[in-house]
Amino acid sequence: MFATLLGPLPRPPLGGDATTDALVEAAVLAQEGAGLEPITDGGFRSDDAIVDAWRATARLTERAVKQVVAGPYTLGRRRAGTATERTAATLAGAAALNATLLELAVAGCPLIEVHEPAATAIGSDPGERALFREAHLRLLDGVDGTHVSLAVTGGSADEAGIDTILAAPYASLAVDLIAGPDNWRLVAMTPGDLGVVCGALSTAEGSEDGPELLLWAAGYAASTGGRGPQRVGLATASSLAHLPWEIALGKLERLGEAGRLASRPSAEVVEALDPRAVSSRSAALGRVEPPASHRPRPGQDPT
């Protein structure tokens, strides 16, 4: 089971004159150190030369590097104008971005992540559903030889329905399960032969980032549609860019730890968890000895 980012990182603590390459290198090293893969550029490269940006990041690591692109529906909603003008801009943007995806595939990019936070605004509107479907069918037209994933962050998009969200031939769906808990409905409806990336690590400063919730999310996603753990990944729920660098690093470490735990034998996983997450009755009766990381330190209140 893999662990990855769904959104950018905060600026590393480098000097004000740090180059883009230096910022990206710091982001890559942070992800490598936490055991994440696929790796991103941390959101520090421009969208103007996407293929060159991916190549530059890929040269910094031996691990798989994914390329994140903004989806056509989200880009279209950012444009001012009439509904007709927005529709035209969205579909034209999808066609233009399709050429970029084709170039990325030829260049050897192993995974392209299309971010559509505006999908949370589709709702039950038939016109918006149709526009999203058509835009993504145009976006993925002829794209093969790479894994293309659709990412929905910032809220729930379940009202749009799985037939809208996955109308195009995506290989996986990544969803924010913190700001959008109803996205679990999309997970349950995603065909079992497609991957699911669970954005279950909170991006809030001071949140409880133990592995229990992440492992539960991964296990549930693996159980849907006969998917299995080999088609499930863990991720941050969305962007970490608003956090101090050190806080973000801590979250990366927790994410990587959960990804490693998910691949271990069940007995080792149970030993690493808070016993209340495994057997609340046994823990309440004092029959479970907490793992070392959860035992009170000398002088600490055990409650």
Quick rundown:
This protein has helices spanning 20-34, 50-58, 72-77, 83-107, 126-139, 162-165, 184-189, 211-223, 245-262, 266-272, 275-278, 280-284; strands spanning 2-4, 66-70, 111-115, 147-152, 172-176, 195-201, 232-236. With 303 residues, the chain is α/β, with parallel strands linked by helices. It has a single domain (2-263), classed as TIM Barrel, CATH 3.20.20.210.
Plain-language structure description:
- By secondary structure, the chain is α/β, with parallel strands linked by helices.
- The chain has a single domain (2-263), classed as TIM Barrel (Alpha-Beta Barrel), CATH 3.20.20.
- It is built from 12 helices and 7 strands.
- Strands 1-7-6-5-4-3-2 form a 7-stranded parallel sheet.
- The chain is globular.
- Mean pLDDT is 89; it is low at 276-303.
Helix content: 40-55%
* Count of distinct strands: 7
Distance between the termini: 33 Å
CATH topology category name: TIM Barrel
- Report strand %: 5-15%
**Main CATH class:** Alpha Beta
Order of helices and strands: EHHEHHEHEHEHEHEHHHH
Described by strand count, sense and barrel closure, the largest sheet is:
7 strands, parallel
Class per helix and strand makeup: alpha/beta
Oligomeric state of the chains present here: single chain
- State the low-pLDDT regions, or none: 276-303
Q: Strands of the largest sheet, in order across it?
A: 1-7-6-5-4-3-2
Query: Number of helical runs?
Result: 12
The whole-number mean of residue pLDDT values reads: 89
So what's the overall shape?
Answer: globular
Count of the separate structural domains: 1
Question: So, CATH architecture?
Answer: Alpha-Beta Barrel
Radius of gyration, CA atoms, in whole angstroms: 20 Å
